């Protein structure tokens, strides 16, 4: 209704194009484009993670219907596609995935749905992947992306906000290929996201600067913070085989407790929705606190104070600074 009213008022006033303030011209163009597109079927874009889903919604705006196979707050490691997910993909116009092996299930799902590969957008395309440390991650839930030298790639590139700016550009370009009539709108919305993420990256650096260099150690249950650590100057200790799916030996626990005491680390962290018992045990033995949960594989649930990818970053940074500074 707002777009209709805007155009109606424009014509009733009979103002010429030269009289329209420059700042309002893009709004009029978008309004006209949106109304023209309304007569067509709205494309459905299926997304392979909650991070990608949030970005697709922001860049796609009202021109698309974005559907996430993994809802916010749901453990991406535990996700197993269901028959209805294959049906949803068959009805989709575009599939957007993180890539780098994050969606270990998607290749089979694409094959089962006979989905054309030329309608798949890999959000992380063009990002140089970091290699996982041997034995530091459970690869069973994710796929096996690789670096140029053949090492298993870490798929959590969204830990660095600058990488997510590349995600936005790839998503924008994919939506333009799908819907060329919406190019102006997709570019405008993508530019807004890029500006927001440039500001967010600056805020992250400024806020984390409150943590002394000696305390910039994150010990958590999930090895998903390498990109974050490289971008923002942290050391991460997260042997996933120890915490994610297997029981550590008494020596492994003792070694980690000794590390925490020796480095005078103030806190350890658990990923959102994971069992905290082991990390609570380690925190107790090391005499440190258990910080607020971190969101490492997806965005916070809808009832969280911070939502979307921006909320994921803000929530994690606030949790780290509250416990470590």
Number of strands: 8
CATH architecture of the largest domain: 3-Layer(aba) Sandwich
What name does the CATH topology of the largest domain carry? Rossmann fold
Radius of gyration: 22 Å
User: In order across it, which strands form the biggest sheet?
Assistant: 2-1-3-4
Percent helix among the residues?
40-55%
Low-confidence stretches: 1-29, 32-39, 135-142
Mean pLDDT: 84
Properties at a glance:
single chain, 325 residues, alpha/beta, Rossmann fold, 2 domains, four-stranded parallel β-sheet, two-stranded parallel ribbon, 8 strands
Tell me what the structure shows.
The protein is of the alpha/beta class and 325 residues long. It is 46% helix and 8% strand. The chain has twelve helices and eight strands. It has helices at 2-13, 25-38, 50-60, 83-90, 106-113, 161-178, 183-208, 226-232, 240-243, 250-262, 277-286, 308-324, and strands at 44-47, 65-68, 94-97, 120-122, 217-219, 235-237, 267-268, 289-290. The strands form three sheets. It has a four-stranded parallel sheet, covered by helices on one side. The protein has a two-stranded parallel sheet with strand order 5-6. The relative contact order is 0.12. Residues 1-29, 32-39 and 135-142 have low confidence and may be disordered.
């Amino acid at each position: 209704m707002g777009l209709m009213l805007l155009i109606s008022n424009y014509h009733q006033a009979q103002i010429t194009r030269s009289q329209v303030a420059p700042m309002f011209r893009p709004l009029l163009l978008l309004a006209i484009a949106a109304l023209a597109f309304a007569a067509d079927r709205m494309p459905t874009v299926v997304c392979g993670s909650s991070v990608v889903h949030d970005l697709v919604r922001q860049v796609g705006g009202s021109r698309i219907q974005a559907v996430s196979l993994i809802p916010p707050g749901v453990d991406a490691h535990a996700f197993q596609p269901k028959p209805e997910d294959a049906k949803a993909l068959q009805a989709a116009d575009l599939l957007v995935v993180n890539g780098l092996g994050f969606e270990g299930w998607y290749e089979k799902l694409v094959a089962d749905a006979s989905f054309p590969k030329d309608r798949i957008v890999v959000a992380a395309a063009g990002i140089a992947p970091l290699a996982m440390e041997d034995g530091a991650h459970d690869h069973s839930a994710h796929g096996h992306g690789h670096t140029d030298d053949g090492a298993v790639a870490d798929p959590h590139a969204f830990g660095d906000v600058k990488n997510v700016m590349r995600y936005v550009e790839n998503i924008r370009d994919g939506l333009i290929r799908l819907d060329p009539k919406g190019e102006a709108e997709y570019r405008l919305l993508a530019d807004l996201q890029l500006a927001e993420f440039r500001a967010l990256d600056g805020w992250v650096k400024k806020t984390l600067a409150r943590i002394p260099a000696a305390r910039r150690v994150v010990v958590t249950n999930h090895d998903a913070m390498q990109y974050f650590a490289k971008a923002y100057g942290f050391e991460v200790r997260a042997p996933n085989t120890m915490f994610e799916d297997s029981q550590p030996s008494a020596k492994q626990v003792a070694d980690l407790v000794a590390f925490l005491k020796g480095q005078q680390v103030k806190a350890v962290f658990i990923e959102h929705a994971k069992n905290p018992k082991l990390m609570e045990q380690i925190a107790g033995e090391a005499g440190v606190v258990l910080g607020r949960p971190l969101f490492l594989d997806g965005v916070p649930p809808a009832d969280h104070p911070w939502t979307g990818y921006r909320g994921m970053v803000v929530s994690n940074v606030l949790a780290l600074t509250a416990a470590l500074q």
